[in-house]
Amino acid sequence: MATVKIGLKGLPATGIAAKAQAVHDGLKANPAYPTPTPTLIVFQSAIDALVAANAALDKNRGPAEYQARNMAVELVRTMMKSLAGYVQAASAGNANTILSSAFGIVKRGSAIGELSPPKGLAVRLTSITGRASIKWMADHGADTYHVFMSTKSDPFNWVLVGTTTKSRFELDKLTPRTDYWFAVTAIGAAGETSLSEPLVVMAAA
Fold it and tell me: Where in the chain is the domain with CATH 2.60.40.10?
């Protein structure tokens, strides 16, 4: 199974805007992706804001312009992560389908053996209302991680909610003071692991 590569690492703000626009255009009217999350209208608005912030910073390199640019970059990064998770789920890991979205694919190195499911899932403290924040032990053999969430535990109903290359993850806009269950898989050269042990997290109030 192929894994989505977000492809923003090392890019300047102008490069992030260009990459995001390519993904937007790759998803637009693509029958493989009928319901992108966030919507393409919202995503395009964020891209346009980043382009405008880049232009404003070129004209005047003041602290306000830098702050506006950095905020625009962070918003586009967040949306790209959400869309990568959506593309991963909607494509079912099909390489050609992923590539049609303009996202890349994680390249596989030489196999170092089958990975074990991520361990040490724990809650990260947060004061942001409606946010659930988790972390786990990093595995040097993992290229990326898939994060799954269930709104119930008997039985679990796992839904892919994100893809990350880091050993931590945050999800916003949840119902405050409500329990959610999370589990994580690791993906490396030998493939994807089974789900980790679940972790229950109460969304911040």
Answer: 122-202
